[in-house]
Amino acid sequence: MSDVVVARGLDEALGALAAHPDATVLAGGTDLMVEINRGLRRPSHVVGVAQVPELRQWSVADDRVVVGGGVTYTEMMTTALAEAAPALAQAARTVGSPPIRNAGTLGGNLGTASPAGDTLPVLAALNAQIVVAGPDGERRMGLDEFVVGVKRTSLEPGELIVRAEMDRPRGRQEFLKIGPRNAMVISMAGLALVVDRDARAVRCALGAVAAGIPRAREAEAWVAERVDWDNGAGVDDALADEFGSRVADASSPIDDHRSSAAYRRHAVGVLATRALKRAFAEGDSGDA
Amino acid sequence: MPDPYTLRVNGTDCEVADSDIAESLLFVLRERLGLTGTKNACTEGECSSCAVLVDGVLTCSCLVLAAAAAGQEITTVEGLGDGRDGLSVVQEAFVDEGAVQCGFCTPGLIVAVHDLLEADPDPSDSDVREALSGNLCRCTGYGRILAAVHSAAATKRSQP
Question: What gap in Å lies between CA A255 and CA A226, rounded to an integer?
Answer without folding.
Answer: 34
